[in-house]
Amino acid sequence: MTYRSAVVFGFNEYAKQIALQIVHEYESFVVFVMDDNERQAAEIAGFETEHFDLGEDWKSIEERFDPNDLIAFCALGNDAENVFLTISLRSTFEHLSIIALAGDQESAAKMKSAGANKVMSILQITANVITEMLEKPTVTEVLHDILYENSSLKIAQITVPKGAFLVGKHLYDIDWAGEHDVLVLAIVDHELSATFSFTARGHNHHIDPDDILVVVGYEDKIAELTALMGG
């Protein structure tokens, strides 16, 4: 399902990258902020803003948007506040589509229980990976399924252990989709201070122990690949 309008709550780096990439996809788009620093940063970046607090009755959303044709990204920097925000939005808008970012898996579970339609852990995906995904047409379709549909696709990080069958191979030596049913978005090179090597940029990365694969796939396929590597 697609939506006419979108809102992002917060303007930390994750929220900013999401906003920058999706703003042109919607007829109306607003960044909701809690303080003047975020408001200033968002407006300098070119976004329309609106102030909110966690005690909102959300009349501003009801007046400006059709909640049934709106998607909300809860991207506050504090997980507890994000949980409270999710609860507040869900209690007011039964059919609102809510995507929440969580700092860890425990918080992700709480946000899901609080009413988020989808939850993404920021331990699994950095702002740069969000940007890269949204810039790649093929992966955009996958991201659409992850965010908007009832999909079992997951984004995960897999650390390459010493002695794994991947060690010593190059990224493009492996048919990731054909052999393992996963899509590799990026590799974090442990020798380059956690620098991301994106698969879209054509670099045939040499895989070393302790490199981290950022992959998209079904949960069972990711588990199979992890087990195959001895993880």
Automatic annotation (TrEMBL):
One Pfam entry name: TrkA_C
Name of protein: Potassium transporter TrkA
Top-level taxon of origin: Bacteria
GO biological process, one term: potassium ion transport
Gene Ontology molecular functions: monoatomic cation transmembrane transporter activity
SUPFAM superfamilies: NAD(P)-binding Rossmann-fold domains (SSF51735), TrkA C-terminal domain-like (SSF116726)
Domain named RCK C-terminal: residues: 143-231
InterPro entries, per database record: NAD(P)-bd_dom_sf, RCK_C, RCK_C_sf, RCK_N, Trk_Ktr_HKT_K-transport
